[in-house]
UniProtKB/TrEMBL annotation:
GO terms for molecular function: ATP binding. Keywords: ATP-binding, Nucleotide-binding, Transport. The keyword Zinc does not apply. InterPro entries: AAA+_ATPase (IPR003593), ABC_AA/LPS_Transport (IPR051120), ABC_transporter-like_ATP-bd (IPR003439), ABC_transporter-like_CS (IPR017871), BCA_ABC_TP_C (IPR032823), P-loop_NTPase (IPR027417). Gene3D superfamilies: P-loop containing nucleotide triphosphate hydrolases. The lineage of its organism: Bacteria, Pseudomonadati, Pseudomonadota, Alphaproteobacteria, Rhodobacterales. PANTHER family: CONSERVED COMPONENT OF ABC TRANSPORTER FOR NATURAL AMINO ACIDS, CONSERVED COMPONENT OF ABC TRANSPORTER FOR NATURAL AMINO ACIDS-RELATED. It comes from Jannaschia ovalis. This is ABC transporter ATP-binding protein.
């Protein structure tokens, strides 16, 4: 589904991504691991259009998407989740979800004057969809809570929920488990597995928690020093000498 070929992203003389080549299979939940500074987040940002590559190529379903801006990729179904931005924290969880689809009738001045009924209808539709998403994620009880009051794990679920408001095909999740308690991490893992099985989402997940990776990811790709060291099942990766060395070296 995604092919990354000899990708480089340099910051001045520093090669954060240094010749990364990898494939993400459609329908997989691929884990991306590697020591701190390996270039995982930078790779995500280049694929998702947040950063331009220094050189190299990224394709999605055979189409060259190298350097396309995030909103173009969004319309193709490629999403990278971000923490809920500061300005959205005073909105409710449901409102945060309703914001996602964009290009709503109410955003055009003409419509706000002349198409009030259409706008009200659109809002009802979006609110109903948001409530379905919250149900799916087992956080329906948080619909009217301000997003800023959510715990770290609940915010991660809300980030996942945002991808469900549009027709995502492939979702890049960065550090799902950071600061999240075990129970919520399991809920997040379940949601990812269900989205993968029931809705056909492909996921790429950066995560340090190996139990979590082992539970939901296959295959696992290990990066170090800006490129791919090894790919395989988590057990294969853990037994790989180069991988062990890369982790010990940090
Ligand atoms: P990882 O996600 O694997 O921990 P990162 O992609 O965050 O790795 O970072 C890889 C390296 O690139 C790090 O050494 C980091 O300091 C460097 N780096 C990342 N972003 C920038 C930037 N904007 N400017 C300079 N150096 C950066």
């Amino acid at each position: 589904m995604i092919e990354v070929h000899d990708l480089h992203r340099h910051f001045g003389g520093f090669r954060a991504v240094d010749g990364a080549t990898l494939k993400i299979k459609e329908g997989s939940i691929t884990g991306l691991i590697g020591p701190n500074g390996a270039g995982k987040t930078t790779l995500f940002n280049v694929i998702a259009g947040v950063l331009k590559p220094t050189s190299g190529r990224v394709t999605m379903a055979g189409r060259d998407i190298t350097g396309l801006p995030p909103h173009d990729l969004f319309h193709m179904g490629l999403l990278r989740t971000f923490q809920i931005a500061h300005e959205f924290s005073s909105m409710t969880v449901r409102e945060n979800l309703m914001m996602v689809p964009g290009e709503q009738a109410g955003e055009q001045l003409w419509n706000t004057w002349f198409k009030r009924r259409a706008i009200a209808e659109e809002e009802r539709r979006l609110a109903a969809r948001a409530d379905e998403v919250l149900d799916f994620l087992t956080i329906a009880h948080l619909a009217d809570e301000k997003a800023g009051n959510l715990s770290g794990g609940q915010k991660k679920l809300l980030e996942l929920g945002r991808t469900m408001m549009v027709d995502a095909k492939i979702v890049f999740l960065d550090e799902v488990g950071a600061g999240v308690n075990r129970t919520l991490l399991n809920t997040i893992g379940d949601a990812i597995l269900r989205l993968n099985k029931e809705r056909g989402y492909t996921f790429v997940v950066i995560e340090h928690d190996m139990d979590f990776i082992g539970r939901i990811c296959d295959p696992v790709i290990c990066m170090a020093e800006g490129h791919v060291l090894a790919e395989g099942s988590l057990d294969e990766i853990k037994a790989n000498e180069q991988v062990i060395e890369a982790y010990l070296g940090t």
